[in-house]
Amino acid sequence: MSVRTYNPSVRVGNWNEDIQLEEDTLKDFLDKREKGELLTQKSSNLAAVALQKKNLSISQDGNIRFGDVIMLRCKGTADRTRYFAGVEPRDDCTLALNLTDPMQLSQDKFATTCNVTGCRSLEPVLRTVFCVQSVNGSDDVLRYGEPFYLTTLPEAGGLLLHSDNCTFMKCAKKSRHQLVSLVSEPSFLTQWQVVHKEPRLRMEYEGAPVKANDVVILTHCKTNQNLAVEQDFLVRTPLGREYEISAHTSLNSHKAEEESNLWTITMGVPGDNMMSSLSQNNNQSEAIPSTSPPISQ
């Protein structure tokens, strides 16, 4: 006569070790949550710091000077026709610091090297504003054809916009074009220059001051490639899908740069529409509605 010696209440294998492991895992999780060391907590804190609102510099004479805080904006495509299902026309975007590096999210500060993306948000925040720095330490106006550094603010680590010739191991992940990133050490690889958008007028504008809120082309000094928005390639970030940024010159049939290479150096100029809209947004965000009734005379 066979007797069944096993039932669901029987413990088999290393049951004691499994229970102890679960208890230790739960205890470690609770300790990290109390100290704020969980990856989700660190990433949310870092994202909150990166989204702090910043003020752009105001140009009194309409020129861009070294030390000004600016925002680079690339206008969306003029043709809004959807030629393929699921493919949307490119929207307006701004150059922004990317927070997708897992090692960076595990720290409480910005890493010394990170990538950049095209953010659809057009508000001046810490991750979307940059500072124009001179190569030789001058405080004069920025001129066409003059090399300069484009750095993040000191709160974001003071990183410099960097690029180099693409190789098989070092290139943009999706477009396979020249990689653009942020580094901490200045070099010839971090030097850029402003070029006029019209090819026939570039020699005439050589050495002329760069005006604020003008549409220009940013060219890398070493590789002679233009800063570009890859409208066909999106990358995942903690803040949503954003456009991939590379250094690639896109020419049309007339040998002129396409819309993906055109950037607007956004600043505040007294009396313009951009300045008034920014002031209205700041006033609306800082205004607190009053709930007390008006005082009768």
TrEMBL record:
This is Cilia- and flagella-associated protein 161. It comes from Lottia gigantea. SUPFAM superfamilies: MIR domain. It holds the Pfam family CFAP161. It comes from the Eukaryota. One of its GO terms (biological process) is cilium assembly. Residues 273-285 have a biased composition (Low complexity). Residues 273-297 are annotated as: Disordered. Residues 286-297 have a biased composition (Polar residues). GO terms for cellular component: motile cilium. Gene3D superfamilies: 2.80.10.50.
